[in-house]
Amino acid sequence: MINPIERITQNRIIQLFQEQLGYTYYGNWEKREHNSNVEQEILKKNLLKRGYSEALANKAVKEVFDAANTNAGSLYDRNKAMYSLLRYGVKARPELGENFETIFPIDWKNWNQNEFGIAEEVTLAKGQNVRRPDIVLYVNGIALGVLELKRGTTDIAESVRQSISNQKEKFNDWFYSSVQFLFAGNNTQGLKYGTIETPDKYYLSWKEDEQENDDYKLDKYLKKLCFKERFLDIIYNGVVFDAGVKKLPRPHQYFALKEAQLFVNRREGGIIWHTQGSGKSLMMVMLGKWILENVANSRIVILTDRTELDDQIERVFNDVGESDIAKTKSGKELMHFLTSPRPRLVCSLIHKFGNKTETDFDAFVKELQDNPVKTQGEIFVFIDECHRTQSGKLNQVMKAVLQNAVFIGFTGTPLLKEDKKTTMDVFGRYIHTYKFNEAVEDGVVKDLMYEGRSIEQNLTSQTRVDQWFESKTAALNDFQKNELKKKWGTMQNVLSSKSRMEKIVSDILLDFATKPRLKSERGNAILVASSIYEACKYYNLFLQTELKNKCAIITSYNPNMRDVSTEDTGADTETDKEYIFNTYTELLKEVQSSGNKSKTETYESDSKERFRKEPAKMKLLIVVSKLLTGFDAPPCSYIYIDKKMQDHTLFQAICRVNRLDTDDKDYGYIVDYMELFGNVTDAINVYTSELDSEGFTSDQVQVTMKDRLKIAIDRLMTAVETVEAICEPVALPKADLDYIHYFCGNTENPEDLKANEYKRMALYKAIVEYIRAYSNIKADFVNTEFNELEIKRFHQKMDDYLNLREVIRIASNEMIDLKSYEADMRFLIDTYIKAEESEKVSPFDDISLLDLMETNMGEAIESLPKGIKGNKEAVAETIENNVRSKIVEEHLLDPKYFDQMSVLLQELIERRKQETISYQEYLVKMAELIRQVNQGKKDDIPASLNTKGKVALYHTLGDENLALLCEETIQYAKQEGFRENMQKQNVIKGAIYKIVNDLAKVDEVYKIIEAHKDEY
């Protein structure tokens, strides 16, 4: 049967679990009452069967059930506590006075001693709304997996979104306290998996034995992942709780872990080569955790030059209960730890372990070899980025000092031929490889798109400037182009007779004004400068632009008066050192140092955090060498290179843009101002030095970037072909009615509409992809070989496709919700395609117009586009949409106040629609409402509430003294880094509870603290 309904697929999968995987079928639990994530009878029966006494079994069942069904803490907290209980066992004693024993709810060592079962249509009725997962996987009666299935024509993303919504508090988040695996599948796209609170973009696909092609991919990978032994092994050895995020291994990480276990058991070292961005740090953590648990008397030394990795490792090991950790900053301190029996895990930030010159380096190594240090325990040394030249020397020193240690090197880059001998001598052969091309193919990282740009030095005439501007803004519609021209009215002055650096700044600013990912503020960028001096020059240039307060400089520099004490030349000019010092002194002027960090460290830490999490507020980081390795920021989409780089340094730098993010991030873009590759071809090899390809083909090890224009053309043509193929079956003459019949059926028949829904979804997605492809290449049509007629056809197709989309949407009476695959579509249409659409909304993008409405409503209305201002209904709707957007934007900062504003707005809208208020009176009342929304507080707010945070606390608690006491308590209780640390959050929540004595209020207050990042 083509495209079987879900029921048939579900029956097949149930049969697979029973007959091929050996799971017990518990039945259809749709009408069964009191379904639970811990089925107590099944758990007790298994514990008794494994030899535990009745008394111990009863105590264990009660503790497991209580832990799985507690309301205390977030879902993450509850799941983490439950995982710990399952993994490490329940401590109980049979009778008072007897010794404690450990009862394991799951037998991790003997997987066949457990009972694996499934139930279908498991009704969950304890939440506010009933949900019914398709299939639940139980081990000893404990729900460890949930599978959501869809028919083959329904996108697997629907299953993923259903799983995510099921975990919300208003549904049945209680059930997911014990769940480790969340599966989503259909017959056409196969299987994806995640865990609790995994965002949809991070749901993973398994990949193994690709040559096997007998089954549906859904069946194949359920058999791979739910095979009893592996299912438990992944849960036991692969789950990591990392700073509020629960993670499961990707397939390459799991297989690397299994290979590495074999090497460790043989006490053999080796190299794990996992490309940049594929989760190498997590790999270190999983392997380190396994060694400490499975190798008696083992100790681990992790050497890295990345502070973030150092911190992450400490954090994750603390989260898994491994607190015997030390961090060192010198070789001497490290050796001191290794001659003592504790700690078991030592992290070391080392740049120069053997501080010796080239000439006496060999003698230094020999001296160490002749006088080995007496270390304690079985030592395993992990070295991050083991390919580097300085690491090669460091590795020799470590090998000389720790003669009996096992060395495991981690690298994200291929080995250069010249480095091969040093690296292989120290570490040995490859344990596991996961190369760049594989990661791109698997969708683990984004592909890289290259564009070389030469900066014209002769933009001296107005004509040349106009031509340059026209070429840069060719993608924009006329309205957007005119808006940009107003902003860039001094283009002639900006670009003529200015320095190369100023031209690069102008070029980057135009990218922020024209490139979809940057203009939408979902993405941001890094600029790599040649020196700290140049970085400071760039920073000061950007301060004169709209990126002021939205860019930061991050280098290895830390201002010190000693730097400039001898720099005064007597002339009235700055030296380079003085310029750097003065730049940093100025930018750090308002920074308050946090915790034990210096002002510079605080500034850099805050800037990086905003860059990662708030791309609209931190659009550009200017760097020299820092952050070019190991810095993980999913929004980062463009890297501008104005520095000579090659090989490893270049590859690591450009991989800052290859992390996954929202669907509108299609590639990582590299813009090269240094002409690093001369004349580019279709694919540019990142490495110019010869790579070691022994055991691989050269294609497998080489890293290539695609030429941006060639890929843009391919993408456009593919998008056209896709839409045309979807529309091919529509009957001639392909008029509106023919399209409606094909995509909707009989629009009065709900069953027809439902049956054809998959066609409409495919059409909508294909048109969105065309919009993206078209927007991406529109500015470059002039540089392609398309003739005028062909280009005109592409423009016409855009209009045709948008009209078709609207016809089908209206005929089917469905509002297309802008889900993840359409998140950027409104923006793209407004910016690149339909000028008249933009005219309706663009004037209100600027908050100063809201201010204008507050003070002079007549003038504000007059400033609206002519298509709106002559129509009272359109004016009202435009104002209302704008005010509503402002309320939504500010809501998190003060929920109670903006809830009131929302009610007032809705009342005003109702009165307008019911015509119980004159148009003029409506405008007066709307101006007053706008004033209140802009003000963000009531007029009679007490003077003591002098910050937005205090005002929000007052609105929430309703009492001035209580708000001030709460503020004081929070400021006293908060600790550095509390937003990333659940324990520190709980300290704050505990302090709040002592004041408000109400759990619901605690949550409300804490959300306000979370939102006001500038105050708390």
Considering the chains and any ligands shown, give keywords for the structure:
1016 residues, single chain, 25 strands, alpha/beta
Any chance you could write out the topology, listing elements then pairs?
Layout: H1 6-19, E1 24-28, H2 40-49, H3 54-69, H4 75-88, E2 90-92, E3 101-103, E4 116-120, E5 135-139, E6 142-149, H5 156-166, E7 181-186, E8 190-194, H6 217-226, H7 228-238, E9 240-242, E10 245-247, H8 251-265, E11 270-274, H9 280-294, E12 298-304, H10 307-319, E13 325-328, H11 331-338, E14 345-349, H12 358-370, E15 378-384, H13 389-401, E16 406-411, H14 417-427, E17 430-434, H15 436-441, E18 448-452, H16 462-472, H17 478-487, H18 491-495, H19 500-514, H20 516-519, E19 524-528, H21 532-542, E20 551-554, H22 576-587, H23 599-613, E21 620-623, E22 636-641, H24 647-654, E23 668-672, E24 683-685, H25 698-701, E25 704-707, H26 708-727, H27 736-744, H28 750-755, H29 757-777, H30 788-811, H31 825-833, H32 835-841, H33 847-855, H34 857-862, H35 866-869, H36 872-890, H37 895-913, H38 919-935, H39 948-957, H40 960-973, H41 982-996, H42 999-1011
Parallel strand pairs: 1-4, 6-7, 11-16, 11-17, 12-14, 12-15, 13-14, 15-16, 18-23, 18-25, 19-21, 19-22, 20-21, 22-23
Antiparallel strand pairs: 2-3, 4-5, 5-6, 7-8, 9-10, 24-25
